[in-house]
Amino acid sequence: MTAPQPMAGVKVLDVATFLAAPFAGTILADFGATVLKIEHPKLGDPMRAFGTPTECGDTLAWLSEARNKRCMTLDLRHPEGAAVFRKLIAQSDVLLENFRPGTLEKWGLSPDSLREINPKLVVLRVSAYGQTGPKRGLPGFARVAHGFGGLSYLAGEPDGRPVVPGSTSLADYLSGIWGTVGVLMALRVAERTGQGQDVDIGLYESVFRLLDETAPAYARNGTVRERMGADVPTVVPHGHWQTKEGRWVAIACTSDKIFARLAEAMGRTELTAADRYATTAQRIAARSEVNGIVADWAATMPMEELGAACDAAEVPWGPINSIADIFADPQIAARGNLLRILDERAGELVLPAPVPTLTATPATLRHAGRARGADTDAVLGEWLGLAMGDIAALRGSGAV
User: Fold this and answer.
1) Where are the beta strands (DSSP E) in 155-312?
2) Most exposed of 61, 271, 332, 349 (fewest Cβ within 10 Å)?
3) Which residues, other chains included, contact 315 with Cβ-Cβ below 8 Å and sequence gap of 6+?
4) Residue 174 pLDDT > 60
5) pLDDT at 1 over 60
6) DSSP state of 53
């Protein structure tokens, strides 16, 4: 008998747009939650038009990140639409939203008023700067969050301009992950106490929380970490090097023992002498010299040989993969990190697999992102028991 998925039976309303809060819905849906994506009847979610377009009218980004969600249309600003929404809230466990703070309140749909209908309701609220503070009402996207949260300041070469840490919407995805963690904890509380709550996340907070020891180091010593390219301030060598054929690799030496093993792999055991680079402090003081030694060695080695030498010496290393490299890698294949599906609208798709891997109750991919309003009639019938005539009347009024 197949065990039910971890989130089976949990009902989630996703009224958010674009990526941050909706990604929390994607994670919950991957693991069995019933996630109902609610979009404006005419406008839809802008994520449908973000990214590479496909023949079905929606982008690859939508097909991937709206997967496993049922889709219905509903105008929350329409009186009849708001009434239907409240009835859906009564049957739901979680609400996901990422409007500017105050928007739901302006529509008469504040979390507190919704909990008068459903006291156990958990509301994930993702915004640029969170629900409080002097910047609470300002707009923002991941690019702004990366800068405000301190991540972009650290990304790039020491003498260059700050760069985007990977050309992805990192803060959006991270906020979705943090949001999922918050929702799971809040659901646990709701099960125990019968009381829901808000999960409040500012996009910038999702990256700021990941900046190593920068906050305590500045508070204690006034240290401002600067851009270091591929380096980190606390250990050496720990970065990226180019091989003989022009490939890039990452090598990570986080201790004196690992550096000693790297020195052996390079045939340079003299580097670990007490008066050379035996200790982390010595290597940090001679950062450019140590990095140069590793660079000279890597430049003489094809990547396959370099990797074999590092593996034999138990030195952590790995290729700097492009997406083409990822598709060809046997580890990726063995882990099932790429899912190939045949979608009824878009044809063959390859999507990133859900994370994490649960051995007893794994995630499933039931379908890619659906068409706008694909499940409106079914949801209104199944959840609220509305007859086709009632649904037609709602559609005629513009509420759905």
Assistant:
1) 198-202, 238-242, 248-252
2) 332
3) 251, 253, 258, 261, 262, 265
4) yes
5) no
6) B
Q: CA-CA distance, 242 to 136, in Å (whole number)?
A: 44
pLDDT of residue 70: 98
What does DSSP assign to residue 126? E
Q: What is the pLDDT of residues 78-87, one digit of tens each?
A: 999 999 999 9
Per domain, the residue ranges of the chain are 11-209+361-397
Predicted confidence (pLDDT) per residue in 241-254, tens digit? 999 999 999 999 99
Q: Which of 13, 20, 66 is nearest to 175 (CA)?
A: 20
CATH number of 11-209+361-397: 3.40.50.10540
CA atoms within 13 A on the CB side of 357: 7
Over residues 169-177, mean pLDDT: 97
Q: Is the peptide bond before 134 cis (omega within 30 degrees of 0)?
A: no
Q: How many beta carbons lie within 10 A of that of residue 26, not counting itself?
A: 24
Q: If 0-12 CB within 10 Å is exposed, 13-18 middle and 19+ buried, where does residue 236 land?
A: buried
Q: Which two tokens stand for residue 66?
A: 């709206």
Q: Please work out, in degrees rounded to the nearest 5, the angle formed at the alpha carbon of residue 68 by the alpha carbons of 338 and 88.
A: 160
**pLDDT at position 121 over 60:** yes
DSSP H stretches of helix in 16-109: 20-30, 60-65, 79-90, 103-106
Q: How many whole angstroms separate alpha carbon 214 and alpha carbon 197? A: 31
pLDDT in tens, 182-204: 999 999 999 999 999 999 999 99
Q: How confident is the model at residue 165 (pLDDT cuts 50, 70, 90)?
A: confident
What DSSP state is assigned to residue 272?
G
Q: Are 81 and 74 in contact (CB under 8 A)?
A: yes
Nearest C-alpha neighbor of 374 from the set 343, 347, 349 = 343
- Give me the amino acid identity at 299: A
Q: Which of 30, 45, 172, 231 is catalytic?
A: 172
Query: Do the Cβ atoms of 218 and 144 come closer than 8 Å?
Result: no
Q: Each residue of 199-212: pLDDT tens digit? A: 999 999 999 999 99
Tally of residues, the chain: 400
What are the structure tokens assigned to 243, written together? 């091989």
198 in active site: no
Inter-residue contact 73 to 41 (CB < 8 Å): yes
- Res. 166 pLDDT band, cuts 50 70 90: confident
The C-alpha atoms of residue 99 and residue 137 are separated, in whole angstroms, by: 10
